[in-house]
Amino acid sequence: MDWVSHAQAELRGAGYRPGAAARLVLEHLDREDCCRGAQEIFDALSTGGTKVGLASVYRMLERLDERGLVQRIDLGDGIVRYEAARDAGHHHHLVCGACGKVEPFADRRLERAIEAVEERSGYSVVAHDVVLRGACANCRD
Q1: What domains does the chain contain, in order, with CATH numbers?
Q2: Averaged pLDDT for residues 96-122
Q3: Fewer CB near the last or first residue (10 Å), C or N of the chain?
């Protein structure tokens, strides 16, 4: 089952009746490779000619977050971002301090280092987020 169908089934099972706006938000999140804020999602849908209210986007993100269907990402800039919660495709984030660009990155050696910390510490790590801040290629010059 794809993520959109899974999310819709979970929402229906929780008593929500996701309508057209909800489906548009789900489909948008499904297409994205990294986290997006509610305003970014609203702007992208509006630019594409879709009529959906900003409040509907916020409501949908809240419901998805309540059900664990999205990962909530706070990069410390006052904008809460969301991305589809999938088992595959775990990644971290690079954030440009100059232009605000957010990019995903994955590094298997970093994951192994985190696993080693888990083993040495005795903790059972269930989730982790790594955010690297700096300047993107366009801003560092």
Answers
A1: 3-84 (1.10.10.10), 92-134 (3.30.1490.190)
A2: 93
A3: C
